[in-house]
Amino acid sequence: MEKFAILARVEAKPGKENDVLEFLKSALPLAEGEPGTVRWYALQIGPSTFGIFDTFETTDARESHLNGEIAKALMANASELLAKEPVLEMVDLLAVK
């Protein structure tokens, strides 16, 4: 059962909203290839605000994801796509259905 999660918020630079949206959609196969990532959600919160919410059974799996391909790709493109640094919150899940 998932006990741990990451809630990440990213803010697109003006004019880069569609690029961030497409980047997040394109990351799905990378998330599917991570055995420790139980669930992975990419979401749009507002016109230029996006998020990623992922769940894990162990803190080791969460840490592995933080050092994985999605994070590397996002940070490699951050200066071009993002208005500011991503906000990452480590979350302990209290109940899961």
UniProtKB/TrEMBL annotation:
<dbReference type="InterPro" id="IPR011008">
    <property type="entry name" value="Dimeric_a/b-barrel"/>
</dbReference>
<dbReference type="InterPro" id="IPR007138">
    <property type="entry name" value="ABM_dom"/>
</dbReference>
<keyword id="KW-0560">Oxidoreductase</keyword>
<keyword id="KW-0503">Monooxygenase</keyword>
<dbReference type="GO" id="GO:0004497">
    <property type="term" value="F:monooxygenase activity"/>
</dbReference>
<dbReference type="Pfam" id="PF03992">
    <property type="entry name" value="ABM"/>
</dbReference>
<protein>
    <submittedName>
        <fullName>Antibiotic biosynthesis monooxygenase</fullName>
    </submittedName>
</protein>
<feature type="domain" description="ABM">
    <location>
        <begin position="4"/>
        <end position="75"/>
    </location>
</feature>
